[in-house]
Amino acid sequence: PCRSREFAKAMGIFTKTDAVDAYVLAFYGCLKQPEAWTPPEEEVRKLRALLQHRDSLLNDKLRIDNRLNTLKSTEAVQEVMDSLSLVNQYLKSEVARIERLISSHIAQHPGLKR
To answer: Does residue 60 sit within a domain?
Structure first.
């Protein structure tokens, strides 16, 4: 989208309507003949999803770790500390489980090792 908009501006076309956009895209396609986009294979999409989920879990765990450390230096309610500790333990075990899934997925698809 950004390239086509810049292409239109370079052509001196600053109007943005559906008809103008269609013309610019058709002209861009004829002139540049860009490669057709193909979605990544299923195993790549799955690996990306697992990696993103692991990163999200690690960020959540870090947030809970920081909160626990802050509460330890204050007179925090013990029930809150216990609850956060349980959440932290769960996140740790879930990160380990996701990492095992990632390793297993990579082992099943040798092309992903690169």
So the answer is: yes
Site of tokens 């979605």: 39
pLDDT tens string for the chain (114 positions)? Answer: 678 888 889 999 988 899 998 998 899 889 988 898 899 999 999 999 999 999 999 999 999 999 999 998 888 899 999 999 999 999 999 999 999 999 999 999 988 987
pTM above 0.70, yes or no: yes
Distances (CA, A) of 75 to 19, 63, 65, 108: 65, 19, 17, 50
Q: Which residues, in sequence order, are CB contacts of 83 under 8 Å at separation 6+?
A: none
Strand, coil or helix: what is 37? Answer: coil
Q: Which of 101, 108, 16, 7 is nearest to 50 (CA)?
A: 101
What CA–CA distance (Å, rounded) separates 55 from 63?
Answer: 12
* CB-CB contact of 96 with 89 (8 Å): no
Q: Do 101 and 51 fall within a single domain?
A: yes
